[in-house]
Each structure stands twice: as structure tokens, then as C-alpha cells.
Design brief:
- The chain has a six-stranded mixed beta sheet with strand order 6-5-4-2-7-8, sandwiched between helices. Strands 1-3 form a two-stranded antiparallel ribbon.
- The chain has helices spanning about 25-40, 50-60, 60-70, 70-75, 95-110, 115-130, 140-150, 170-185, 275-285, 310-320, 335, 340-360, 375-390, 395-400, 445-455; strands at about 150-155, 195-200, 210-215, 230-240, 245-250, 265-270, 300-305, 325.
- It has three domains: about 1-85, no CATH class; about 95-150, Orthogonal Bundle (Arc Repressor Mutant, subunit A); about 170-455, Nucleotidyltransferase, domain 5.
- Helix 5 crosses helix 6 (about 115-130) and helix 12 (about 340-360) runs antiparallel to helix 14.
- The N and C termini lie far apart (about 80 Å).
- It has about 475 residues and is α/β, with parallel strands linked by helices.
- The chain is built from 15 helices and eight strands.
């Protein structure tokens, strides 16, 4: 049936809605029908003449209309796209009570809680208690409403942005020109174009955000007390999607008597950093042993201006293994280094997930004074290997194209340079209390100054690991 316009205008065609099944959907259809007949907002004063038609077509009752008129102010202020006026009452109160208890218990113990962890716990509880969780799916919208009902928010540290050079565009173009010239000249295979980056890690890999009640000024996060104890992970990958063995450098003077898992190369350094000797070891034990590396086919290695990458002995060793170096200009690693742009963050996120699981349910040891020890070195190696293996090859391939390193030379893949991927609101750079010894902005800073900056208040010179 057509809806007659009550001011004498031409009848309006019937909206294409069938009978609706609940009050919220009926209200949505009611707004559309009444609004098309009488104009915006007038639908709340619909006369009796059309209520019977609404009742037949949309299932709108007199009680619904009375409720809508009573809530006229709230309904008027609703966004146009919002169709449901939720009352804040949970559909599964017993389930939400247990989830809220879990969140409170974890936060009181200082453990990090994430949205995904809440949804996973809720699903597991729902499977174990089907009588109290009929048709529960732990959707994102349910999690959002759960936060609102229980006054929860995500808390995180502030992010310190990297300072970019003034002549940014000229430097990026110069780097891309060099890479293209080298590719045209030598015709590298994608498996022979690689990127390597050193990244510092802490024994306590505390995340930046946790679920917590609103308004709290102090956010407690439980750790083992080794936030200042660090080690270095050296990651490398190639443009065809291959991921090379991670190199892990622990702060020790001697190699620990542990059986390390297969899949990583372990090195020790008295400060836990990469240096010239470490670069040589990496070139010999990781880069030269990549798939196809033994035949020493001409290759291109992209890395930053870390001082150990630029020494004469490093350049000579690169020449001996038939590898050309493409050095990223200072300040541009966040734009043209694949590991920095696309891979380091998901890698560290996966590390933190494993550390959180270990903190909650992993096997731990304690000192005589009752203090928790940091994870064993072999456990840390397992964290690194699993996190690196979880990065899929397609992400690695796209990271090289995103940085303009492996794109088709005919220009058909240049659109990858301008594709903006959605980035989560999480910290990707060190905070103002941390210093990255591999930051390319420290290229011209004397090494002895960096050594002093990196010594923490509680650091022991004779530290031998845990």
C-alpha cells in the first residue's frame, strides 16, 4: 500500500521493508515510513490515522509509540545511522560477571589484559557453560559494550615520533634511484635482495596498553623486575618473502651452557649489542647461508647507517661474498626500510603475547629472596623464533614493495608506495626513557658516549645473565 501524504501532496511509494522481528527494527522502519510521509522529527507525533497501518506492516504497538514519545529528547539526539537505543543490560549477565572478575583479578596481579584476551576468555567460558551463554559469539561490538558497562578503557604510553630530515623527499628519491640503478645494472633476483635490521629487546617485554577501570592515575603492570636488562635481535628477510634465521645477541662474556632451539643463531657480547665482529658473524652464518647464498650470486643488502655497517672491514667482507650494500640515509628508516615499516611491530607484538602468556601460566623460578627471575635464555629464543615464523611471507613481500625496493621496474607496481595501511594505536618507537643504540640518528655520536647513555642505574658491570 502507498502512504498517503497528509498535506495533500502526491502519495509516497511504500518503503521496501517487510515485517520486522523486534522493537529496534520496528522503530527503524517506523522512522523511515513516518519520516518520508511527514518530514524529519514529526514522526514522533504521528496521528491515530496511520498507527493501524504501522501496526499491520511493521508490528508497531501503542506501547512502543508511548515509549518513543516519552524518550523523544533522547531519540532526537541520536545519530541518524543509529537504530537501537540500548539499555545497557547485558544479555549474558553470568558470563560478563566471570569475565569482569577475570579482568579485575589479572589487573590486581599486574598482568596485561587485551581486548582479544577478553573475547577469548569469554568464548572459552561460554563453551563450558552453554546454559548461561546461549548464542554468544564474543563479537567486537559485544566487547565494546562490555567495556562501557564495566567502565573499562585501554591505557597506553605516549608515542614519540621520529624526527624526519628537512630534505625528506630529495633523500627518499635519491635512495630509490640508487636501488633502481643497481637493479638495472645487476639484475638481482628477488631472493637476492635483502634487508637486515637490529632491534633491541628487553627481558620484560611489557606491552603499552591494558584494560583497566576508567579514571585510575596509576596503572600497575607486573613484571619480573628486569625491564632494563636487554638483548639484541637481528632480523633479516628477502624480497621473495623468505625470512632468514634471527640472530640473538645476549649480554654475556661467555656462551651459556644451554641447548638453544634450532632456528636461531646465538651470539654473546659483554654489552648485548651488535658490533663490527657481530656483523661479520651475521654475514658468515646467516646472510651467506640463506637459500642460494652458498653460490654467492650477486645480491643487494639494504641496511641502515649503523656504524658497524660502514667500516672498511665490513665493506671488504661484503665484496668477498659478492654483495652490494644500499645504505639507508639517516632518518629515513621509518619510510624505506621494510623491517622498520611493516615487520618489526607485528614481530614485537607477537613477542609480547608470548611473554604475557608466560607471565600468567609459564614455568618460572625465583631467587632465595622470592623475586621472580627473568625467562631463561632458551625460552627467549623460542619466543623470537615463533614470533618471526608467525609473520607470513606475503607480508614480507609487500613490505619491500611498500618501501620501493622490489617493485616491478616497468612501474606497474609503483602504487604500493602510496598504499596506506591501517596502523593500530600502539607504541612503535622507544619511549623517552629508552634509547635505541641502533638508531641511525646516533651515527655521528661517539661510541663511548652511547655506552654511557645505555648504562642503567641498576646495571652491574659483571652481569653474566640469568
Amino acid at each position: 500500500m502507498a502512504c498517503r501524504n497528509f498535506r495533500g501532496r502526491r502519495p509516497v511509494a511504500e518503503p521496501p521493508y517487510a515485517a520486522f522481528g523486534n522493537e529496534f527494527q520496528a522503530y527503524d522502519g517506523f522512522r523511515v515510513l513516518a519520516g518520508s510521509c511527514l518530514g524529519r522529527h514529526v514522526f514522533l507525533r504521528v496521528p491515530q490515522a496511520i498507527r493501524s497501518a504501522l501496526l499491520r506492516q511493521y508490528g508497531v504497538t501503542e506501547k512502543m509509540v508511548r515509549d518513543w514519545k516519552a524518550n523523544e529528547k533522547a531519540l532526537r539526539s541520536m545519530p541518524r545511522g543509529k537504530c537501537a537505543l540500548r539499555r545497557g543490560t547485558p544479555h549474558w549477565p553470568e558470563l560478563e560477571k566471570h569475565v569482569a572478575d577475570m579482568v579485575n583479578e589479572h589487573r590486581q596481579s599486574g598482568y596485561i589484559v587485551t581486548r582479544n584476551q577478553i573475547r577469548l576468555f569469554a568464548l572459552q567460558w561460554a563453551k563450558s557453560n552453554p546454559d548461561h551463554s546461549n548464542r554468544f559469539k564474543a563479537t567486537v561490538s559485544w566487547c565494546t559494550r562490555f567495556f562501557e558497562r564495566h567502565n573499562l578503557v585501554l591505557r597506553q604510553k605516549t608515542k614519540i615520533a621520529q624526527k624526519l630530515p628537512a630534505d625528506l623527499e630529495a633523500k627518499v628519491n635519491s635512495f630509490h634511484r640508487y636501488v633502481i640503478q643497481q637493479r638495472n645494472k645487476h639484475g638481482y633476483a628477488l631472493s637476492s635482495i635483502g634487508n637486515m635490521d637490529e632491534t633491541p629487546m628487553n627481558f620484560d617485554m611489557v606491552g603499552n596498553r591494558t584494560v583497566h577501570p576508567k579514571g585510575a592515575k596509576t596503572i600497575l603492570i607486573k613484571t619480573t623486575g628486569h625491564e632494563k636488562s636487554s638483548f639484541t635481535v637481528v632480523l633479516a628477510c628477502t624480497a621473495d618473502g623468505a625470512k632468514l634465521r634471527p640472530m640473538i645477541i645476549f649480554k654475556r662474556k661467555t656462551m651459556p651452557k644451554l641447548k638453544f632451539p634450532v632456528g636461531c643463531f646465538v651470539h654473546v657480547h659483554e654489552k648485548g649489542w651488535m658490533d663490527e665482529e657481530g656483523v661479520k658473524l651475521w654475514l658468515d652464518n646467516v646472510w651467506s647461508r640463506r637459500p642460494g647464498g652458498l653460490i654467492q650470486k650477486r645480491s643487494l643488502l639494504v641496511w641502515d647507517m649503523f656504524r658497524a655497517h660502514l667500516t672498511p672491514s665490513t665493506k671488504q667482507r661484503l665484496a668477498r661474498i659478492n654483495t652490494d650494500a644500499a645504505v639507508i640515509p639517516a632518518g629515513l628508516t621509518s619510510l624505506v626500510q621494510p623491517l622498520d615499516v611493516c615487520l618489526n611491530k607485528p614481530f614485537k607484538d607477537r613477542i609480547r603475547e608470548q611473554w604475557n602468556e608466560w607471565m600468567v601460566s609459564g614455568e618460572k623460578s625465583f631467587t632465595k629472596g622470592g623475586n621472580m627471575r627473568a625467562p631463561q635464555l632458551d625460552v627467549l629464543c623460542k619466543f623470537v623464533i615463533k614470533a618471526w615464523n608467525d609473520i607470513d611471507a606475503e607480508t614480507v613481500i609487500k613490505s619491500f614493495k611498500k618501501c620501493g625496493i622490489s617493485n616491478s621496474l616497468d612501474g606497474m607496481e609503483d602504487d604500493y608506495l602510496w598504499q596506506d595501511e591501517e596502523k593500530p594505536e600502539a607504541e612503535t618507537t622507544p619511549s623517552d626513557t629508552e634509547l635505541d643504540p641502533y638508531d641511525d640518528c646516533l651515527t655521528n655520536v661517539p661510541q663511548d658516549v652511547i655506552d654511557l647513555l645505555m648504562i642503567s642505574d641498576d646495571e652491574q658491570e659483571d652481569f653474566e645473565g640469568f
